[in-house]
Specification:
Layout (H helix, E strand, L loop, with lengths): L4 E12 L2 E12 L3 E5 L6 H8 L7 E6 L2 E2 L4 H7 E4 L11 H11 L5 H11 L15 H13 L5 E5 L7 H16 L3 E5 L3 H4 L4 E6 L2 E6 L1 H8 L2 E6 L3 H8 L7 E5 L2 E6 L2 H8 L8 E5 L3 H10 L8
Parallel strand pairs: 3-8, 3-9, 6-7, 7-8
Antiparallel strand pairs: 1-2, 1-4, 4-5, 9-10, 11-13, 11-14, 12-13
Bound molecules: adenosine-5'-diphosphate and magnesium ion.
The site of magnesium ion has 4 residues, from α1.
Length: about 300
Amino acid sequence: MDNSLAIDVHNLNKSFDHIPAVINLALQVKTGEIFGFLGPNGSGKTTTIRMLCGLLTPDSGDGQCIGYDILTQSNEIKLHVGYMTQRFSLYEDLTIYENLNFIAELYGLSDRKQRVLKNIEDLGLFDRKDQLAGALSGGWKQRLALSAALLHDPQLLLLDEPTAGVDPQARRDFWDHIHHLSNLGITTLVSTHYMDEAERCHRLAYIAYGHLLVTGTAQEIIDQTKLTTWNVRGGNIGELADQLVHLPGVEQAAAFGNTLHVSGKDATLLSKTIAPFQVAPYQWTRSEPNLEDVFISLVANTKDPRHG
Ligand SMILES: Nc1ncnc2c1ncn2[C@@H]1O[C@H](COP(=O)(O)OP(=O)(O)O)[C@@H](O)[C@H]1O
Ligand SMILES: [Mg+2]
């Protein structure tokens, strides 16, 4: 067994009612790293996470999670993994303190009171410890959920869209904490839709239609996709986008604020197509694609196996 890998799974498959949700998925996550798991809704992220922590049995495939067999040792995995589900799953009518105390009891933790209080301190929840969970804002709820996932000192955190609908400052604080945990040696696998969060991960994987399409650092993924991107400013970029999208070599024309990103795989064809548009008021500059450009391209080039 390779101790440098917190997650090492191969050929995972899972179907629901004969419809594949996860297809031949292999995933390697190094101990201590923050690994981002990206992909559109319904692409199989939650299903994968549930297979990793032993909550769901794959139809086929195998592997280990923090050294335990995902098929036969799910009880051990649950004891050493902190799982934060996609929806807030704590008791809204209990206070922060009561929720954590209850979970500590479930885990049968010794020195419960100290642990709960230390956790409350670590996550900056002390001033609110007597507030009802149901009355907390999204950001504080998510902090409480993280605190709950950390109570039993897990080696690995599986966080399923932990910051969905949370305000930017709270998201930043949350990510600072994940980095702090990473420095302590705790591994995190986190699914997200936010590109700024993807950029805060050490490595990433992108999944679409149940297929893991690409894995690597953000830079590796950008390089691998071999996408050529031009940035356009000035003029009516919405109108320009409408004109460009149907032309040869243009895979996508996506607006980011006042800049239009025009991308394609065939650099020569793309250059030829855009040449007539490289006139005032438009200012064109060749640039590196960003992660979002790359992910849009990856999905566009992948077929949904469920719809032929
Ligand atoms: N318990 C289930 N029963 C039936 N279908 C499911 C179940 N869980 C997930 N699915 C289906 O599997 C696919 C992947 O879902 P999911 O893993 O939740 O994706 P994601 O988390 O990326 O949004 C979807 O088509 C979803 O409808
Ligand atoms: Mg999900």
